[in-house]
Amino acid sequence: MKRLFIKTVLATVALAACGLAAAQERTFKFALQNPKGHPLEIGAQKFAELVAAKSGGKMKVNVFPGGTLGGDAANVSALQGGTIEFVQLNSGILASQVKAFEVFDFPFMFANAKEADAVVDGPFGQKLHALLADKGIIGLAYVELGFRNITNSKRAIKTVEDLAGLKLRVIPNAINVDWVKALGANPTPMAFPEVYAGLEQKAIDGQENPLSVILANKFYEVQKHITVTNHQYNPQSIIFSKKIWDGLSEADRKVLKDAAVEASAYQRKVNRDKSADDLQELQKAGMQVSEFSAAEQAKLRDKLKPVVEKHGAAIAATVTELQAELAKLRK
């Protein structure tokens, strides 16, 4: 009887210990490039709130905005090694891991945000995220940076020819280098945390980003001109370390996935609601705004077609699949 009692006590202690272990708090790091107050940072904070709520406080996400944990390439490497759990970055940058992601950097691929949502949230976007698993990366959801526009400190850009000779910072990958070259400008690949200093020190003349990024990072302090081109749409991926993911329970994985999907919808709404005011804010800050005429916009598209064809050849099946999805949406 005494032995039975001891066994029961030991079993109870063991079960309690297991329960404590299961309830142990996990703390994750979430790295992104844009600063506090940007819609991407607001979305990341919303994600952190949702993870805490859905896990009953068991999981905590600490958000590190503004490139404080390094540039995108360094963040992805750290994520693969398991020292950073979450990273949020332009989906096109993941082309260095899976080449098919390069399709997200093709100029004028999406006509509007509704098209982009349908593609990234549907089978096409999910398939691309699934391809990252072999690279030590789990794709959870897509948020957005939005449509990109060109700024510079030299002159107003009202025609394609006005871009000639400008030294423009680009996201460090081949297609971005090539499309800037195709417009007669000089591409300068540069990690995002270095851009403001590069503009301030005149190492580069300009850069291209969505209005929200230009405003949040105070590029208006070092740039005089902005041209609304909407030449490229950037979805961003919320990714997680597979090294850490493999050690999580199915319940914990579901918490992270559900929170990412919910935060994604929230972030896009915040970004789109805010973008209507961003251009006015940039003008108030002293930037001079110009837009291409319909004829110049058509010329811009024509100049960039050979770049899309060149890079599309290497991922032909992916391009065909995306174009088929877009054709369905446009019917």
TrEMBL record:
Known CDD domains for this protein?
Answer: PBP2_TRAP_YiaO_like (cd13679)
Which first-to-last residue range defines the signal peptide? 1-23
Keyword Signal assigned: yes
- PANTHER family per UniProt: C4-DICARBOXYLATE-BINDING PROTEIN DCTB, PTHR33376
Similarity remark: Belongs to the bacterial solute-binding protein 7 family.
Q: Which NCBIfam families match?
A: dctP, TRAP_S1
Q: What name goes with this protein? A: ABC transporter substrate-binding protein
Origin species: Sphaerotilus microaerophilus
